[in-house]
Structures are given as structure tokens and as C-alpha cells.
């Protein structure tokens, strides 16, 4: 139950409930009063730390924070706080630690696994005001930025020096570097240039006790354990990042894209494996099935082959001779793999148009369906074709359409399950469809997530992939950073009891819903 719109102590317009009045209240009403009192206490303590207007508690103020890009699960936070300085973050975390209040750090809210879903009795710590690029050092090829800086803004700032930041999620125009660190984001060029973990050199972060830690280094190595790799992808469960040093790369002088059509998804999947087997590492290697290109083409007019059962986009970058040689080598492999048509971008405008279709696959899905459920699993490249065949069978089983988009080069797939949220039965089938996709990924030797994180969406699927001993090790790492378990609780790592309950329900084809979170 939500607390009253205006807490009495904060607004000063309503006197506190007297003891005599409380004696007359029902149990439900007493719960509301207790919730309001707790909200008052937390909000007042936080208002003493940040400027006026930087603490939100009214429902109309907190409503925009109720979910991230995974809108299926929603929860109003008790309080939202928007600090402006690192010292304010330190004091906020110390206060929440003292009051035993959960904290969920939030960036732009573009995440797709529910990692930023609020805790109903907790604080959302928004890093939206941490949006400054602190420095761009062209000779060292690094940039120091705050976590609220947008991914694309880093490349924009580095462009005058002929540099750029390589990881390029489809949401790069909006997502923040802090969110990229939380989920270890990738993008269409991650095959050659790596994920976030390969492009971040150092982070400065605050623990739940308010201690400042620095992980990584601007040097080639750093003493001690590699804790930087632990915090990247930890979904805000270990510490709150306040500063990031990223690696910048020289912008390639030339890039061209090969678009290859296939009359069979198995051939397309095998072509991906053949390219890598030939020793070619393209800058990007993406795959889309026929349903996806049909949805995208009217939206962006990229010039896709709408008759093909699947298309591949393979990019080469470097100097003119390097690109020419690699394009020729890829064309040879693609023809031998059964490509029915091959086109090569003639200029930069056409190259960007080819990629625009791939990067707009998600919004294109939104044009043809009331809702879509984006999955994120990873499989060995050799199984791309069989996986698409399996998904086609699942479409029949669940009576739902699915668009298939892959970071094919590294086997990271993003099936988009189309459904109507106004029909609860369709949402239930979509959930089951998604869970079966992830379990199939594990069966093929893959993982339940590639770059979108676990959050709350895949927490049950973690029970399928990881043993009890492994999950205990995950919790031990979290406890080393966050002993009271206040940072983003209930996410990423399933408890042993949850997995035991999930196992019982799974045997009987049931599911373990998040009963405490409203849906849609």
C-alpha cells in the first residue's frame, strides 16, 4: 500500500496521528501510518543532505521511477533522491546504512532486465545530475566522466581528437556510462572492440558504509585482485559508481558493411561460424531474421532484402587496403556458405543506413505490436541456426510471434516476443516463452544473459544455470562489499530458497512470479 501523498512531518500541513486515534485505526491503516512515519524519517534525513527539491516522495514525483526499460514489473519507491556531488552520495549512503534502508542506484532507466526496479521500502539514488565529462586526454587516449554521462556523449566529446568510445549499445543516444557499467553493456561493435569491461580502466565508487574505493588504474596493470572486473556487471549490488575512466580508440579512417542474404536460417548461422573460423574478426557481425527485416524496413528504409530468410551485416574497418582485403575475404566465405545476394555499402551514408535498421529493431517491434518482451541470452556461434529453428517451434507452442536479432559474432541473441499486455494470458505465455529461450541457451552451452543483466527478469533462470555452491560464492562476494545487503537487494542472485521453490514449480510447469510487484 502506498504512503499518503504528502507525509505530515515534511509538509507540515497535517498533524501526526495521536495515540488515541491510532487505537481506533484498522490494521491496514496502522500499516499506512507506520509507512508514512518511515517515509517522513528517511525523507527528512535526506533533505538535510541535498539541495531543496532534490528529495521526491509524492506519488506523482516518484511515479517516473517505478520501472526501467522492463516495464512489466513496477514498484513505487519510498523516496527518490538526486545528489549533485560525491560528498552528498557518501552522506546519503551512510544515512541509509544507519537507517537500514535499501538503496537502488539509477541511471537513465534504459535497462531491460529490471535492474533499476525500485524497492518499495527503499530509496532510489538517481545519478542523473552526475552528467559532466571531467576530462578528455587525447595523448593518453582516456576520458574521465561521471556516471550520468550518456554513452554517445563520450564519443562526441572525443571526436575533435579523432577518438571515440567503442561500446555502442542500441540505446547509446540515451543510456549512461554508469548503467553500462552496471550491466556490462556491449553493442554491435563488441565483437572486435569488446564489452564495457574491456573499455573501462578505472572506477571510483562508494560503498554502503560511505567509504570511497578506487578500482582499476590508468596504468597497464593494478596491484591486487582484479576487482574492477567484479564491479562491472554487478548491477549496483556492490557499490555506487561516481566516476569512470574509459579507454578511447582512434576512429578508423574507413568502414564498410557487407550485407548478405540467405534463403535458410541454418545457412546464415553457419556463415557466422565460418567467418570466425576463417580468422576474420569483423568490427561488427549482426544477424536478423525475415520477420525482423520486414518490421524494420518500412521504419528506416535501410535497403534490406525482404525476401531473405535471414540477413547478415558484417563490418570491416581500418585503412583502405585493410578494408578492401577483409571485405573480399568475407565475400568469399559468405558465398561458400550459401549467400543468395551480397551488397557492400558504397559510402558512409549507406553504411549508417544499414546499421540504422539493426539499431532500430526494438522501436520497429513497437510499431507492429502493442508490447514486446526483449530477451537476452548467449549461445555458441555454431548453434545460431538450430536456436532459430527451436524458437520457431516455441512460436507455435506459445502462439506468439518472435522477431530475432543477434549480435551474431559473439552469439548474443535478442529475441523480441510480441504480445498484448492488455491480455494477461498473453503476458503469461510471453514469460514462459522467454524462460524457455533462456533454458535452451543453457542447454546449448550458453548463458542466460549477454549484456542486459539479470535484474529481476532472469533471476529464476539463474537457478537453472548455477549450482548452489556457485550461488553461495556470489553472495559471499556481495557480502564482502555490502554486508547488510542494502544495495539493490533481491536482484541478480537468486536465494537458495527461491531456487528450491522454483525447482518444485518448474517440475510441474509452474512459475514463481514476483507477487509483490504490480505488472503493467
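Q: What amino acid sequence fits the structure above?
A:
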Amino acid at each position: 500500500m502506498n504512503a499518503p501523498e504528502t507525509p505530515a512531518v515534511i509538509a507540515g500541513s497535517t498533524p501526526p496521528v495521536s495515540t488515541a486515534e491510532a487505537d481506533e485505526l484498522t490494521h491496514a491503516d496502522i500499516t499506512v501510518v507506520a509507512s508514512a512515519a518511515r517515509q517522513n524519517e528517511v525523507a527528512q534525513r535526506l533533505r538535510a543532505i541535498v539541495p531543496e527539491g532534490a528529495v521526491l516522495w509524492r506519488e506523482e514525483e516518484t511515479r517516473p521511477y517505478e520501472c526501467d526499460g522492463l516495464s512489466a514489473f513496477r514498484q513505487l519507491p519510498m523516496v527518490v533522491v538526486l545528489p549533485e556531488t560525491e560528498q552528498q552520495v557518501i552522506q546519503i549512503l551512510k544515512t541509509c546504512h544507519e537507517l537500514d534502508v535499501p538503496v537502488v542506484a539509477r541511471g537513465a532507466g534504459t535497462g531491460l532486465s529490471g535492474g533499476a526496479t525500485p524497492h518499495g521500502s527503499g530509496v532510489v539514488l538517481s545519478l542523473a545530475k552526475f552528467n559532466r565529462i571531467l576530462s578528455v586526454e587525447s595523448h593518453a587516449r582516456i576520458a574521465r566522466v561521471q556516471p550520468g554521462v550518456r554513452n554517445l556523449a563520450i564519443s562526441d566529446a572525443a571526436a575533435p581528437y579523432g577518438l571515440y568510445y567503442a561500446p555502442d549499445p542500441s540505446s547509446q543516444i540515451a543510456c549512461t556510462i554508469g548503467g553500462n557499467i552496471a550491466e556490462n553493456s556491449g553493442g554491435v561493435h563488441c565483437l572486435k572492440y569488446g564489452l564495457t569491461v574491456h573499455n573501462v580502466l578505472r572506477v571510483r565508487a562508494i560503498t554502503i558504509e560511505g567509504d570511497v574505493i578506487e578500482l582499476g588504474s590508468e596504468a597497464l596493470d593494478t596491484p591486487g585482485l582484479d576487482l574492477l572486473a567484479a564491479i562491472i556487471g554487478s548491477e549496483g549490488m556492490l557499490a555506487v559508481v561516481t566516476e569512470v575512466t574509459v579507454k578511447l580508440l582512434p576512429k578508423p579512417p574507413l568502414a564498410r558493411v557487407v550485407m548478405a542474404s540467405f534463403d535458410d536460417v541454418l545457412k546464415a548461422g553457419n556463415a557466422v561460424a565460418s567467418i570466425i573460423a576463417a580468422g576474420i574478426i569483423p568490427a561488427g557481425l549482426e544477424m536478423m531474421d525475415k520477420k525482423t527485416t520486414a518490421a524494420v524496413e518500412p521504419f528506416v528504409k535501410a535497403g534490406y532484402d525482404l525476401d531473405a530468410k535471414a540477413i547478415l551485416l558484417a563490418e570491416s574497418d581500418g585503412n583502405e587496403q585493410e578494408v578492401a582485403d577483409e571485405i573480399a575475404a568475407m565475400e568469399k566465405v559468405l558465398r561458400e556458405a550459401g549467400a543468395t545476394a551480397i551488397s557492400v555499402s558504397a559510402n558512409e551514408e549507406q553504411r549508417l543506413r544499414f546499421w540504422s535498421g539493426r539499431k532500430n529493431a526494438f522501436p520497429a517491434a513497437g510499431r507492429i505490436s502493442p508490447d514486446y518482451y526483449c530477451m537476452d541470452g548467449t549461445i555458441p556461434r555454431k548453434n545460431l541456426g538450430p536456436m532459430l529453428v527451436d524458437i520457431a517451434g516455441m512460436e507455435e507452442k506459445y502462439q506468439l510471434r518472435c522477431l530475432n536479432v543477434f549480435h551474431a559474432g559473439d552469439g548474443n541473441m535478442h529475441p523480441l516476443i510480441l504480445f498484448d499486455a492488455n491480455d494477461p494470458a498473453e503476458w503469461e505465455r510471453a514469460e514462459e516463452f522467454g524462460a524457455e529461450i533462456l533454458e535452451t541457451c543453457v542447454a546449448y552451452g550458453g548463458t542466460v544473459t549477454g549484456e542486459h543483466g539479470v535484474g529481476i527478469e532472469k533471476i529464476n533462470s539463474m537457478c537453472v544455470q548455477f549450482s548452489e555452491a556457485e550461488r553461495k560464492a556470489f553472495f559471499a562476494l556481495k557480502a564482502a562489499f555490502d554486508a547488510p545487503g542494502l544495495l539493490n537487494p533481491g536482484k541478480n542472485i537468486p536465494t537458495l530458497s527461491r531456487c528450491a521453490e522454483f525447482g518444485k514449480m518448474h517440475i510441474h510447469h509452474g512459475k514463481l512470479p514476483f507477487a509483490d510487484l504490480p505488472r503493467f
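Q: And what stands out in the fold?
A: The longest strand covers residues 254-262.
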